[in-house]
Amino acid sequence: MELLDGELELREIQKLEGHTDRVWSLAWNPTGTGVAGMLASCSGDKTVRIWQKGPSGSWDCSAVLEDTHTRTVRSCAWSPSGKLLATASFDGTTAIWERVGGEFECVATLEGHENEVKSVSWNASGSLLATCARDKTVWIWEAQPGNEFECVSVLQGHTQDVKMVQWHPFLDVLVSVGYDNSVKVWTEDGDDDWHCVQTLGEAGSGHTSTVWALSFNSAGDRMVTCSDDLTLKIWDTSQNPSETSGDGSGSWSHLCTLSGYHDRTIFSVHWSRDGLIASGAADDAIRLFTESKDRMVDQPSYKMLVKREKAHDMDVNSVQWNLKEPKLLASASDDGTIKIWELSEVSK
Amino acid sequence: MILFDCGFDNGGDIDDDNDEFPSKVGKYKAKTELHHFCSLPILIRIQEMVVGLLNANPIVYKKKERRARNVPTVIDEVTFTPTIEHCSMATLIGLCLRVKLMRSLPSRYKVDIRVAPGRHATEAEVNKQLNDKERVAAALENPNLLELVDSCLEP
């Protein structure tokens, strides 16, 4: 995929206001309606808002999902079909919303975590859901007919608060990251027997503080993690995912560390289809990284492409590339706003 | 950097099993116990610390900045020295500090809170939690804990 030549910048398209508390997380609908789709945002104001591009071309709030969660909604994720939205809350529950036209209805509530649920993620086929919480566990739920969800496994292993879970883009491999500074890879042995096959970075190449987020590249052979230790780490798996006989855990190893670019906690990281890594940090800035073309001794390296200072008035909590238009980026902040950005060439 | 000296008379039993923000604050409900925990000297010192922070970072508006509505970000660090060893108390005092800062300073202030090094058995754990905004946010959604913090800050 050809990237733009010349100097690039993030151009602010629109600022979305409406939430009355910090916005924690964003999720683009994978199918969406119209050209650029639909965006879900969740907030400390206990609501989830749905944003869509109207006929005038501007983004408007088309729905507010409220009166369900009794505390902060921390994370949201669309099912691969785009018909269901899972929302994870500090109230200990995960709600499942079904989209019927422009309306949303809460069709299920997943209970079980002992305290605040931090993240939720659907697997590639939409058959499994993963959640994680401050109770140090990761739960795997199976989607059944009639919007029923059954917990099939409770994964123990993290020694502290688990901050995020993310499924591999096409394999049933789950990665979790957290307050214990670790990155864990989980797979199934058949018959709902899930276990941790790898804990990344234990031998010194790992993060030295809370790992807040992770993101896979589209090929599924690399992932990036971001941390309170002010670094981004790229990991890759030597195993060719398409050649595995279903195990697919591969053997993840540390590829490189991006340090010196951030001076405050990095809360979010997202890898676009085009190969650009966006980061959102506590210095109110958004940064973009890409793989460096200048090869030295065959060692892959990454460089910073764009730094957008003061992207928001406060911490950036989430950055998410649009799944259909790879130059469109959404960001969410403690300042209660969401911004839509377009990656474009600096006009000379 | 400002040093904050915090004296505390530890009268009652303290649940010291872990260093998480206390979720059960029932034992602190009695008014006399609250008074014990949040003595006036502590509150005065929190107030002094906030004023000190504001004074140490005066805002200088340059013409260009004012037009661009670009207000400079202030990053500072506050260190507090609890004179008691109990971890859960240090965490609670740190939380009161965090809330006071949030309520008193403009949003462009980013403040890191540290327990003075060498004074506390599990200072690294206390620091980590006090500077994890998600943990702080979740703790403050606990109505009992928030009530306790509020009564400490506005007796």
TrEMBL record, chain A:
Q: Which Pfam families match?
A: WD40
Keyword Ubl conjugation in record: no
Please list the GO biological process terms of this entry: iron-sulfur cluster assembly
The entry's cellular-component GO terms read:
cytosolic [4Fe-4S] assembly targeting complex
Give the record's keywords alphabetically. Answer: Repeat, WD repeat
Instruction: Name the InterPro entries for this protein.
Output: CIAO1/Cia1, WD40/YVTN_repeat-like_dom_sf, WD40_PAC1, WD40_repeat_CS, WD40_repeat_dom_sf, WD40_rpt
Which sections of the protein are WD repeats? 16-52, 66-98, 110-151, 155-186, 204-245, 309-348
Cited Gene3D superfamilies: YVTN repeat-like/Quinoprotein amine dehydrogenase
At the top level, the lineage of the source is: Eukaryota
Q: Does the UniProt entry include the keyword Lyase?
A: no
What does the function comment of this entry state? Essential component of the cytosolic iron-sulfur (Fe/S) protein assembly machinery. Required for the maturation of extramitochondrial Fe/S proteins.
Q: Which family does it belong to?
A: Belongs to the WD repeat CIA1 family.
PANTHER family for the chain = CYTOSOLIC IRON-SULFUR PROTEIN ASSEMBLY PROTEIN CIAO1-RELATED, WD40 PROTEIN CIAO1
Name assigned to this protein: Probable cytosolic iron-sulfur protein assembly protein CIAO1 homolog
Q: Which organism is it from?
A: Musa troglodytarum (fe'i banana)
UniProtKB/TrEMBL annotation, chain B:
Q: Which SUPFAM superfamilies match?
A: Fe-S cluster assembly (FSCA) domain-like
Which keywords fit this entry according to its UniProt record? Proteasome
Q: Which domain of life is it from?
A: Eukaryota
The entry's cellular-component GO terms read:
proteasome complex
Keyword DNA damage listed: no
Q: Tell me, which GO biological process terms does this entry list?
A: protein maturation
The keyword Transcription regulation is assigned to this record: no
- Entry similarity comment: Belongs to the MIP18 family.
Q: What is this protein called?
A: 26S proteasome non-atpase regulatory
